[in-house]
Specification:
This protein has 325 residues and is α/β, with parallel strands linked by helices. It is built from 10 helices and 13 strands. It folds into 2 domains: 200 residues, 3-Layer(aba) Sandwich (Rossmann fold); 91 residues, UDP-galactose 4-epimerase, domain 1 (Alpha-Beta Complex), CATH 3.90.25. Helices cover 40% and strands 16% of the residues. It binds NADP nicotinamide-adenine-dinucleotide phosphate and ligand G4F.
């Protein structure tokens, strides 16, 4: 039986990845940071099938202990401060979690067992003010937020430890991926949740920032398959994971409201307070390498994703907020 350790298991991707690895027969351990409230909403359905180790990306000794205790074959580093606007509010902490946290974890791998295969959650946010369209593995980075800068450091330190110490370390440069488990502060879920509330008469308006921003959106359940595939290769590498299609926030809203028979123009208001100090205007990924080497292709379309999210939020709210996503 293979064994995997996941940082960020309580997050959107961590919960989907744990589902996938359990399905594949892995023993799964999640690293969870201490909190005074329960953070396990997204993994409540699998808590009896995973082991939990206390640990924090700020504390290298806790990472060493988690690895020593769980003896994983594979580590997936999904833990990070992942909300872009928060990274302007807490740039130093973002660097500690999202950048230096990766060095701490890579050090822990080296000290405990350098044969462990390692996955780093890199981000299309690193491309920022894009230098070419579509973006591929060789496209230069120009990050536009403290988060993007931290992810660029994390990406390069992973590449560097691979080249310096021969670690089997891979980076997935994932474009935006969403689903019913997405945090409510991200635009996709903010829209799907608001659409459901407006439909049910629980909310009147939806305030958004930049409606013209373009993203390459996919479904999180598809994207965690790519993470796993990277660690099954004989040779580590870096891969863009994307849908290869692009839509605006306006189009997302239009399709989401139409799903419940409403016209988005009657409900969406723009709020300048939600604009960012520096915006990533447009992202579009080229995942040809992942298709060629990993055999990875996404299964859920953009429209399918928007419908899935709106339907899930409607179902959850009709159930009084109790339905599992
Ligand atoms: P998410 O839902 O925000 O989850 C982040 C996870 O990181 C949570 O489990 C959180 O734990 C954990 N975490 C935060 N700080 C930590 C610390 N100091 N020590 C240990 N764990 C910590 O993010 P996601 O959407 O699943 O994304 C997963 C990863 O992929 C992140 O690294 C993100 O930056 C990256 N990424 C995401 C996307 C996307 O579109 N979703 C695209 C590219 C890259 P708590 O529950 O305790 O807060
Ligand atoms: O949903 P978002 O907050 O995601 P963003 O900033 O693209 O970051 C996500 O994807 C990255 C991959 O590229 C990840 F690395 C990162 O961890 C995260 O998962 O915003 C998407 C777009 C932005 O252009 C934003 O300006 O939507 C625009 N937007 C417009 N109104 C809004 C809003 N974003 C949010 N969060 N809230 C709004 O009201």
């Amino acid at each position: 039986m293979k064994s995997a350790l996941i940082t960020g298991i309580t997050g959107q991707d961590g919960s989907h990845l744990a589902d996938l690895l359990l399905e594949k027969g892995y023993r799964v351990t999640g690293v969870v940071r201490r909190s005074s409230v329960d953070q396990s909403e997204r993994i409540a359905h699998l808590l009896d099938r995973v082991e939990i180790q206390q640990g924090d990306l700020l504390d290298e000794s806790s990472l060493v202990k988690a690895i020593e205790r769980s003896q994983p074959d594979e580590i997936y580093n999904l833990g990070a401060m992942s909300f872009v606007p928060a990274s302007w509010e807490q740039p130093v902490l973002t660097g500690e979690f999202t950048a230096l946290g990766v060095t701490r974890l890579l050090n822990a791998v080296r000290f405990v067992n350098p044969r462990i295969r390692f996955y780093q959650a890199s981000s299309s946010e690193m491309f920022g003010r894009v230098r070419e369209v579509p973006q591929r593995e060789a496209t230069p980075f120009h990050p536009r937020s403290p988060y993007g800068v931290a992810k660029a450091y994390a990406h390069w330190i992973t590449v560097n430890y691979r080249e310096s110490y021969g670690l089997h370390a891979s980076c997935g440069i994932l474009f935006n991926h969403e689903g019913p488990r997405r945090g409510r502060e991200f635009v996709s879920r903010k829209i799907s949740d608001a659409v459901a509330r407006i439909r049910l008469g629980m909310q009147q308006k939806l305030r958004l920032g930049n409606l013209d921003a373009r993203r390459d959106w996919g479904f999180a359940g598809d994207y965690v398959r790519a993470m796993w595939l990277m660690l099954q290769q004989d040779t580590p590498g870096d891969y863009v994971v994307a849908s290869g299609t692009q839509h605006t926030v306006r189009e997302f809203s239009e399709i989401a409201f139409a799903r419940v028979g409403l016209d988005w123009k009657d409900y969406v208001e723009t709020d300048p307070a939600l604009l960012r100090p520096a915006e990533v205007d447009s992202l579009l990924g080229d995942a040809s390498l992942a298709k060629e080497r990993l055999g990875w292709v996404p299964e859920v379309s953009f429209e399918g994703l928007v419908h899935m999210m709106v339907d899930a939020d409607l179902g959850r709210l009709k159930d009084g907020g109790n339905r599992r996503q």
